[in-house]
Queue: 4 jobs
Job 1
Amino acid sequence: MTDQTTLPLSHSFWLHLVLPRAAVLLVLIALGSLLVAPVPLLYALLAADGAFFVWQFLQFQACADDHLRGMGSMTPIWGGYLALLFAGFASASLWWGAFLFAAPPETTELFTDRMDRLHAAEYELLLSEDRMSLTFSGTVTHGLSKRARVLLQENPQMRTVTLNSPGGHIYEARGFAYQIRDHGLDTYVMNECSSACTLLFVAGVQRSLAPDARLGFHSYALEYGSALPNVDLQKEQEKDRLFFRDQGLSEVFLKRMFDEPSTDLWYPGRTEARQAGLIRP
């Protein structure tokens, strides 16, 4: 005799499986695309949905057992199992989306942005309050000439660039030096201006030093040893020697400026620097 408390299998399929699970899936779609729920709440809801899914299975299984006892076919039972399997995969996928939507991964910093940020941390470019002077301190590195160009374009009234740097990348120094020269700016060394920084200094119209400031010169060297075999250091030095000549430096100084090894620095005295034309007027 059939248990009267058990629904027919077809009714159980719709009432215990399809309709309740369809409602759950609609809620999960909303959680995964429209609503941002706190992660702890999602875990609680996931546990509740897991328990509800088990209840659905047990209710359908009870009706399936009653269906078999009544000599019913296995076909609708297997259909119900397939529907449960599909619902399980669909629920798992939507739950995954809900968790991703609730806690999106942090945006990965682009390599180029990261390098720009790291290089910018190696120096400072500061405008004076009256925006008539720009102070550069730190290492001459990638991105410097680009930032300096923007500041000079935004402040055409600028008159002086104050320097305090041990040097750095010669290509960036050239870019900044050309901007100083083309804008007709004066240069002033606050403490030390060595190596590539001297290109910035000599680019000035009027060039002066603080009482204890000094200029350091040496021969060029590759930053990464022999990793750049196509770079001709002698040719690079001659290129910058020509720039110094164009800025009015004496031939005596031009012959001496790259004699010091790259591991050391030559600091000309103030009288020597003035005679060479480094300090002007």
Job 2
Amino acid sequence: MTDIRQTPQYAKYMRALGWKAEKISGVYYFIKKFPIIGHFVKIQRYDAVLNEHDLKKLSNKYKIFRIVVEPQSINNGLWLMDNKFKQTAAYSPSKTLQLDLTLTQKKLYQQLKKDCKYSLRKNIEHRIKCIEENNIEKFHKNWKASVPFSRYVPSLNNLTSLKKAFEDNCLLLSCSRTQKLNKAGAVFLKSKDIGYYWFAFTNKESRKNLVQYKILWEGILWAKKRGAKKFDFEGIYDKRFPNKKWLGFTHFKKSFGGYEVEFPGAFSKKNFIKNYKLVKNSWRF
């Protein structure tokens, strides 16, 4: 299945954030210009084989100082290493968790772990309700108010651009019981056959009342209702590239069941143009 980062909607979103998005041989390339040093290129979650001809076309058009590639398949990762790309920090998760949404809602519920079922029952007891938030500015304000200053919060422009790009396939979900509890929410996306848990936030009071379980469960059901066949939790802890900060939310996500999916990670090459040599009218690394 095509990853969201290789769809026209995601390309529209990236263009709104100031990136160029070009599609060559079925693969989207995202390009950003930096003064003096040139262009940075990233290619994310493609499921094809990059070839010298396409890279030549790109290098002829832009002065590329660095390229980062995040393939879906191990074979494509091996191709990159054979061509002198080096492993680097990833822009998208190297490991994730996915649910089979072709299962009935009853079976999806049955595969939830005990702590997840307990939390959802508590949500019912506390009369926690989820609502679709159409006021993006309000959603953004609540997000900023619910997390520490050091935590990343996408800009209002970022959220607005995301909603415009995905339209009805972008859900901003908030949960409420009291005014304090209203500062909890998540952003869900759907692209073709896959639903995504894209962003999420909770304040201290919401976490205490286990509101995050209700939000995610409702997002999963929303994606299923819209025809998604898979649900992607967008990242869990990966011991190959350890980040202990990911352990907590990995436990939370795994309480919903599902199966793990690994990607090769990210690969980078600097001084991209200088690494090419023209030999008999063909480009090679």
Job 3
Amino acid sequence: MSDTGKLRLGVNIDHVATVRNARGGAYPDPVRAAKLAEEAGADGITAHLREDRRHISDADIDGLMAALKGPLNFEMAATEEMQKIALCHKPHAVCLVPEKREERTTEGGLEVAREENRLAHFIAPLREAGCRVSIFIAADKRQIEAAHRIGAEVIELHTGAYCDAHAEGNFEERDRELAALREMSGFAHSLGLEVHAGHGLTYDTVKPIAAFPEVKELNIGHFLIGESIFRGLGPAIGEMRRLMEEARGDTLRSAG
């Protein structure tokens, strides 16, 4: 990314597929949503192909790769099946996330430090294929150092605990989580890692994260898909981008 301070927005379209799958059939179409998101100003599209295919399907990935003008960020578990799919499609980016079948959504960051050797070998062919490899992790120095050692180019910091604390009105915990995210954004940047962030972000919580100068991209999905019911997808994305740019502009002005 250039030094203009522009913060990228990746829009996760998983839960368009969740709505489709609740009824069966082909509507609403996640690929159509992805194209609308691009038209509304999304810098990239994120899709998580889960092992149980609870929302995004293999056909959705085929359709996204064919239809998108911008980059696809392919979220996936670190399994042989998912590696084969990624190597077949060669998306712009691959983001490794933890995955448990019983969870409703991704509950935490990937445990990199304990699986360093396995993950280093796992990501090597993805990097050789030209995919940017990102690791979704907690704001934890040990995990960030491990992600750096195994050759990841990007980390995505899990903002879920910060967002949950805000929603629960636990502002002391929220501020602790925010401070950790701020510190670890700077630490990861100092190692040469590109820093992204996401999970649970809303209009109420996005600006403090967007203000971190080291963060180059936010990935936001569930809230935007839900908000699109009331505003429409384009206006929902437009408002999120406005808040992000406002926060980043404030950061640049204070730095100047």
Job 4
Amino acid sequence: MSAEPNKRRKLKKRWILLLTAVVVVIAGSLWVADQFREEEKQLRSDLRQAVKKQFPEQAARVADSFGLSRFDVHPDPTNPMQPGGNTVVLVHGLDEPGSIWMNLAPELHHRGFDVWIMRYPNDQPVVESAELLLDHLKMLPLAGVQELALVGHSMGGLVARELLTRPALDYQQSVSYGEVPPVVALVMVGTPNHGSELARFRAMTEVRDQLVQLAKGEANWLGGILDGAGEAKIDLLPGSRFLTTLNARPHPQGVKLLVIAGIASPWSEKQIDGFIANLHDRRPTESESMLADLKDSLVSLTNNLGDGLVTVDSARLDGVLLRTVPGNHSSMIRNLTENSERVPPSVPIVVDFLEKVFAEYSI
């Protein structure tokens, strides 16, 4: 009778040991990767370059899918395209399969903007994405564009900042030579300006990206490497060499900046203020210090949650206007389905900001 319980105990012990070993291996690999970030990044880049060299046709096919394209809508005689007028370039983020602009792009077009969408290898180093963006912006003067605004979601905001501030790219010199139009505004939506710890787990978003491409019939069996071998993940980690260098530079001159951060928490800072005020009315004066501490804790909890991927403090930039909106990393800018009548909270803020910037620029 005792043999069966002993067998179950041994089996349970083995499972516990196995799970413990798995946890130790994962934790150890994360620690090692964190200690040798730049070395891992170089290995990933070497792998990508080796694959491109070994499979040039596949690499060329994938490369052809990237670039700048004008937002295409059904012709509307009452609202014709505005070539070269109030141009906006939308730059997506990490492992984005293409749906992030499903609400903003049509609304911008409806309001008379000339909308362009940039697609790039979203897992490659941010520096390379900024270089690619610069190359494609050089086609805009040929399309009659005289000035433009950039809107970046998530890592797209970092790509735009790198483009505008990296000395080696010298965007302003390209403007002075007439190679590219001047950028008058940059809106960063859910951008991890100080990094995100969750970038470590980009493998899950990479799977989603490739599945969406498969559903569209655009999948490539080497797409998971040719669109970047995960170097961007290392750039996005807090304290990375890339972010440290980027954040040490001054903000681009002559460019109006706006940061929009999402808050997935069920309460906002305004609601917290109301809650604390209500408690203050019910408690004696001696509790003011306690209530102040409680408010700080609630605000900190809300900001640290942020949009679920990027905290409010990570999105924040010194000297740059910050707007917070309810929603997670995606819902703050897009709906779950195309048929939804909900207006994502960031959309009217972006449109209003850009209309004001272009109005001021044209004076």
